[in-house]
Design a protein that fits this description.
The structure is a homodimer of 362-residue chains. Chain A has helices at residues 18-26, 46-63, 77-89, 103-112, 228-233, 243-258, 261-282, 307-319, 344-360; strands at 7-8, 69-74, 95-100, 117-123, 147-150, 152-153, 158-159, 171-174, 191-195, 206-211, 299-302, 322-323, 334-337. With 362 residues, the first copy, chain A, is α/β, with parallel strands linked by helices. In chain A, strand 3, helix 4 (103-112) and strand 4 (117-123) form a beta-alpha-beta unit.
């Protein structure tokens, strides 16, 4: 492959479109005739202001974000938002409902307990997180400040196949591992946040899309850099923003738009996932534990049922240029993260490697 | 100049060594034979682990950081630490002493009030921040949890010319705009923090150097991502770190070591600053308001005394390839930030431009 690149199935940070990397590389010493790198530029300069405004506009356009939502670029990752969301939003009844469908949604609930009451509205933990609870199984409090879900579970490879109805209570979703993978009706959510390092940009920027009426009520202990209202008033530049990843968001979204936008991403991603899941379902060696209607399109987990064989699979795959297919350290097995930037050819190469591996290890 | 680059006097983000940018550019599609970009790599991979460990080791080596200090790479900038420091450290008497010598040290005190009592130990505000208070003028409380200073004031162009004696009370310093510009006796400080975007790396990573005995006492409301103890236990990877800026820290420190380390930086920086201040002091048009013994080596401010002329100066300088010399929007005038990466030639070019400008505008 060009530049001797591999197919990189890492769950995040993860593959970026090659054309984006090439552009970043070419502009590294001199961005757009400015005489300096994007990494060297004052964030208060006109040139950088155009870069960040372009990235905000592109998020709005590509995700079709309604005008009554603000788009923020913050720091600290989704883990930072596990604290940021309650500090900003848990200020009415000082309680929120959490649907726990994996490790990160559990961590979000734990972190929120520092700031108020975190009710567990439902959890699939007893079933090892192999499914997403149904609407009728969610125990929601009408006076909760918000309901929190993790829309795609990176570690367990599951995904919400519906947007829960929460009445007047704002729905908050961690979309770190599925943002920009398909169209989403943003108006159904009060707040969406996502660490960018999976489908959107290098690590170091967190996208927060927040309905304007939810801002301005932050707890007095909220650090200014995590206060949505302060950051919104300052176009995410209350303090120096993570300039390079924001610039990369602009480039990645330019790529997504050129490729046909989120409808095209969805079609492509579902086709890639189908290829892999179909093979797994037909295989006698590999299996996927997630209930089929809850399977993630972005992160496909699979096991052989034999830890030693799993290990050999990961090593031989890496040697064949199929890298980072090891499952999360907390669950073992394998995981192929097949975000937007993973070409179909990468999934084909993985499936054909799995085929050979199965034959060779009968 | 190569790549049509300009001399960029921005206060931050600011110039980086060209060789560092060239290396980052060359490795952007394939880092060190890994088949992927540093921006695409799992932070849990062996390859990335070597990158972050190398950066930590380099900070320790270059700054001569004693073994009883931890080196953390966090997110949220120095502004994030304005909250992070009190949440981690203000847990004894729940009060701290602040020496206010400019805008950022003032902001640090304001933010700390969210978490406890912020005593103003001294301030040079009545003198428009043109000097640093003397040791004997600091009103320090023996039971304060720490004393906070901003070691170099980017906006006003002043710098501490001594390390204050604080007895048993830990000294905390914001070194955002002077870290790595000269050797510093780290053992005199309880904690040093710095946004990297001035002298160390692109924006998006904050270096925290903290004495180990000061960790482990964070307030229960501290977000996990800002909890020093949690991050130290996880080698700054409790959550996904800002991988690219951390990689760049490694490259910048490699450059600094190759150039002779902090002793060489100090010598070079002082010579550059002398060139500029000597010219200003001899000039009839330009003046610098800071008390000579408190002048910053990194950020030299100057004015003509005529706002219109200042404005023309900035515009004509930019046209001549001397960019971002406009003073901070809160103070006006001019400011030349001459960090490590600004070559002597850049300062010479600025001085000779100032000379011409003065002649032409008599």
């Amino acid at each position: 492959m060009k530049y001797d690149r591999v197919y990189n199935f890492s769950a995040g940070p993860s593959m970026l479109p090659l054309s984006v990397l090439e552009k970043a590389s070419a502009e590294m010493m001199n961005y757009n005739g400015s005489g300096m790198s994007i990494t060297e530029m004052s964030h208060r300069s006109k040139t950088y202001d155009a870069v960040i405004c372009n990235a905000v506009d592109a998020v709005r356009r590509v995700m079709n974000v309604p005008e009554n939502y603000s788009i923020l670029f913050l720091q600290g990752g989704a883990s930072g938002q596990f604290a940021g969301v309650p500090m900003n939003l848990m200020t009415g009844s000082n309680s929120a409902d959490f649907v726990v469908t994996g490790q990160f949604s559990g961590k979000a609930a734990e972190e929120a307990k520092k700031y108020g009451t975190a009710n567990i509205a439902a959890t699939s933990k007893p079933a090892n997180f192999t499914y997403i609870p149904a609407q009728e199984d969610l125990v929601l409090s009408p006076d909760a400040d918000y309901v929190h879900i993790c829309y795609n579970n990176t570690i367990y490879g599951s995904k919400w196949n519906y947007i829960p109805e929460t009445g007047n209570v704002p729905l908050v979703a961690d979309m770190s591992s599925c943002i920009m993978s398909e169209p989403v009706d943003v108006s159904r959510f009060g707040l969406i946040y996502a660490g960018a390092q999976k489908n959107l940009a290098p690590a170091g920027v967190t996208v927060v899309i927040v309905r304007n009426d939810l801002m301005g009520k932050a707890m007095p202990i909220t650090p200014a850099v995590l206060d949505y209202s302060i950051q919104a008033k300052n176009n995410s530049m209350y303090n120096t923003p993570p300039c390079f990843p924001i610039y990369m968001i602009g480039l990645v979204l330019e790529y997504i738009e050129a490729e046909g936008g989120l409808e095209a991403m969805k079609e492509r991603n579902e086709a890639k996932a189908k290829l892999l899941y179909d093979f797994i379902d037909a295989s006698e060696m590999f299996s996927n534990p997630v209930r089929p209607d809850c399977r993630s399109v972005m992160n496909a987990t699979f096991v052989t049922g034999n830890a030693e064989l799993d290990d050999r699979f990961c090593k031989e795959a890496a040697a064949a240029g199929l890298v980072s297919v090891k499952g999360h350290r907390s669950v073992g097995g394998m995981r192929a993260s097949i975000y937007n930037a993973m070409p179909r050819e990468g999934v084909e190469a993985l499936v054909s490697f799995m085929e050979k591996f199965e034959k060779n290890n009968k």
